């Protein structure tokens, strides 16, 4: 009777979900995690039971960010639909025990499998791959203790048919590469530390003596990303040695991302010379030492390039136009361009130029005209100062790129030329020396809407116009050209930061408010904006950018006080879709008011706070964790004592680990000498995506891996 009454009520309201067509229902169900579909939704009624097992929903199973999944759910999922799964992504499921991998053997028809970040031993990998005869794409980690000799002949037979391999190395090894004789795409991530946990120095020469070598004859895409450290450089050279002997004829993408100095050797020079003679590339990224001062780009041939990265190179704008863009010819195929740290890329030459000199707008104009279909552009970590020429401001030229989805700019590049030469405003915390009403000293008040910001013609600024023209932008990074995070990789915390660029002194609240025009914005990074007085623009972003999922704020306003705290708390009350929040600010007070405001972010999953001399309230953190049920990562590197940090971390783990299997908590003093040892235990997914600060626009070619 209750069911009948409910149905009649639905009919009277004119809404009944089950009356929708199967196509519409399948589209709706595609947004539901597969574990929920199979284990819960399909048990509600017969129609949904049939639809939830439709091939369009079971063909590809994505568990990589399903933080609620556990071993039992995976086991049941594989039992129910294992034979229907052709693509399985379990990347970053660090919380699942290694025995979970045993259940993947039920997926007999698997074609693509991603186990990056999962605990897999040599023996388990061998047992699993022996049953997956249709596998063509594989992603795994190679950890200390990996032994290729433990791989069975059946496993090696499967690997011989794999054409796509992504391998993350935590120890010097070839991994399974020598077994993959049909490789067409090879992605290598080198995360090997220079020292073991016991303090012993590691050597990349451990691989010498292995009987097998990589087979690259069919290779089309080679990608290598190196973490800092000399061992990673030693190991990647061994992988490249085979390439230098014989360059694959079908190679069309060659990418090596290496921080710091990675010197060119005779073998690598032979490799590049061979590439210049024999292949035509569609994607290119090389270490800066391999490009700087060489005529390599003049000899390399390109077909229909879609990705270029010249990050941190001394490439001048003249060379960029002449050698890469062929004198300004049509390059509509290029969709992603990374010029981060390329300080002279918008100047005709670099020989006698200072990094702070004005850019040549004609070079940028040629770039914009030739590469009119750019979707991802990174110009950060450089001083790109526009001249006073009317209509030639960097922001005005970039506004022509209507297809942009992600953009990274230095703070000094977005300021109006006239505003940059004006005297910066006085510090707002000083008490005015006047008679009359007393001035209350405390949390700064701020205008609640744009109309309250008097004496600022923000809508006439070039940056406001740029934001208005890029309405479909999803990712935006505005980063100070001299900004460096207080928590770099594999090094002690940085105690002092460089001052912001003089041209950036006028960038503040009005520019932040202009970002609120980006209705579809999903990820926002703001770092080293010196003229933030109240943070009022953040409130506008919270109100207007309702799709915002990731927010990173670092060193806004003056360094001695968090002047935007009140506005930030007001902003967070509107961020219902926010999943990732990273805050880096000295003297940040993570107290009850802040966590109460943060509790409004009902979708929040990951929180990272980095604050030199910052403080926290343990009770407020515990209350926040109890109220925000989706939070699975809490990283805080503050100024509190080691005892306070350890006690709070243990309390969070003890209280919430059982119900949140993916919970990862790290609370530690920022300036403690053992910080690097703590960082190495953080799951790579969190470390790479949020904990460590970096520019992520055009960091890799789009759709490099699924």
From TrEMBL:
GO biological process, one term: SCF-dependent proteasomal ubiquitin-dependent protein catabolic process
InterPro entries: F-box-like_dom_sf (IPR036047), F-box_dom (IPR001810), FBXL18_F-box (IPR047948), FBXL18_LRR (IPR045627), LRR_dom_sf (IPR032675)
Any one Pfam family match given in the protein's UniProt record, by short name: F-box-like
Domain F-box: 14-61
Coiled-coil annotated residue ranges, if any: none
One Gene Ontology cellular component: SCF ubiquitin ligase complex
Protein name: FXL18 protein
Organism: Ploceus nigricollis
């Amino acid at each position: 009777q209750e069911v009948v009454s409910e149905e009649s009520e639905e009919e009277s309201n004119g809404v009944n979900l089950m009356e929708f067509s199967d196509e519409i229902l399948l589209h709706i169900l595609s947004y539901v995690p597969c574990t929920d579909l199979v284990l819960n939704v399909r048990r509600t009624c017969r129609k949904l039971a049939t639809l939830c097992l439709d091939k369009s929903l079971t063909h590809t199973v994505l568990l990589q960010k399903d933080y609620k999944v556990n071993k039992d759910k995976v086991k049941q999922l594989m039992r129910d639909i294992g034979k229907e799964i052709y693509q399985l992504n379990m990347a970053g499921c660090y919380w699942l025990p290694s025995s979970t991998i045993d259940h993947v053997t039920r997926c007999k028809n698997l074609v693509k499998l991603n186990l990056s970040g999962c605990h897999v031993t040599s023996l388990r990998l061998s047992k699993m791959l022996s049953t997956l005869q249709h596998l063509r794409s594989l992603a795994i980690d190679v950890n200390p203790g990996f032994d290729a000799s433990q791989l069975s002949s059946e496993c090696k037979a499967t690997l011989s048919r794999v054409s796509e391999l992504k391998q993350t190395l935590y120890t010097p090894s070839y991994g399974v590469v020598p077994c993959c004789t049909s490789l067409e795409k090879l992605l290598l991530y080198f995360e090997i530390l220079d020292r073991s946990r016991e303090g012993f120095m590691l050597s990349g020469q451990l691989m010498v003596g292995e009987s097998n070598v990589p087979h690259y004859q069919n290779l089309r895409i080679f990608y290598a990303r190196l973490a800092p450290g000399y061992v990673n450089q030693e190991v990647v050279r061994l992988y490249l040695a085979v390439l230098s002997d014989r360059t694959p004829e079908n190679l069309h993408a060659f990418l090596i991302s290496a921080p710091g100095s990675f010197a060119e050797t005779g073998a690598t020079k032979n490799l590049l010379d061979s590439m210049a003679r024999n292949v035509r590339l569609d994607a290119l990224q090389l270490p800066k030492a391999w490009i700087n001062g060489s005529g390599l780009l003049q000899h390399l041939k390109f077909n229909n390039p879609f990705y270029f990265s010249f990050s941190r190179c001394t490439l001048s704008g003249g060379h960029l136009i002449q050698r890469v863009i062929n004198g300004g010819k049509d390059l509509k195929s290029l969709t992603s361009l990374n010029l981060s740290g390329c300080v002279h890329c918008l100047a005709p030459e670099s020989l006698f130029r200072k990094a702070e000199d004005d850019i040549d707008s004609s070079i940028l104009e040629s770039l914009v005209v030739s590469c009119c279909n750019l979707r991802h552009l990174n110009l950060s970590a450089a001083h790109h100062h526009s001249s006073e020429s009317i209509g030639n401001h960097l922001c005005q030229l970039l506004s022509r790129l209507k297809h942009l989805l992600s953009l990274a700019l230095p703070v000094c590049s977005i300021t109006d030329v006239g505003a940059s030469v004006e005297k910066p405003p006085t510090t707002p915390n000083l008490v005015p020396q006047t008679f009359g009403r007393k001035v209350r000293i405390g949390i700064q008040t701020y205008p609640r809407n744009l109309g309250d910001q008097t004496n600022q013609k923000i809508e006439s600024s070039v940056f406001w116009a740029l934001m208005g023209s890029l309405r479909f932008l999803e990712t935006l990074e505005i980063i100070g050209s001299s900004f460096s995070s207080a928590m770099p990789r594999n090094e002690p915390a940085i105690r002092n930061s460089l001052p912001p660029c003089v041209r950036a002194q006028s960038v503040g609240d009005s520019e932040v408010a202009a970002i609120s025009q980006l209705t579809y914005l999903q990820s926002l990074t703001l770092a080293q904006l010196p003229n933030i007085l109240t943070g009022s623009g953040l409130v506008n972003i919270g109100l207007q950018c309702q799709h915002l999922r990731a927010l990173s704020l670092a060193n806004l306003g003056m360094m001695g006080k968090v002047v935007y705290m009140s506005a930030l708390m007001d902003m967070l009350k509107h961020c219902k879709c926010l999943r990732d929040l990273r805050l880096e600010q000295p003297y940040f007070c993570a107290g009850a008011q802040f966590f109460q405001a943060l509790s409004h972010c009902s979708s929040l999953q990951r929180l990272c706070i980095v604050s030199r001399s910052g403080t926290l309230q343990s009770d407020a953190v515990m209350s926040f964790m109890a109220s925000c049920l989706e939070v699975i990562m809490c990283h805080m590197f503050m100024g509190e004592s080691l005892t306070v940090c350890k006690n709070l971390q243990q309390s969070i783990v003890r209280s919430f680990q059982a119900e949140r299997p993916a919970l990862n908590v790290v609370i530690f003093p920022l300036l403690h000498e053992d910080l690097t040892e703590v960082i190495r235990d953080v799951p790579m997914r969190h470390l790479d995506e949020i904990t460590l600060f970096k520019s992520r626009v055009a960091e890799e070619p789009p759709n490099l891996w699924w």
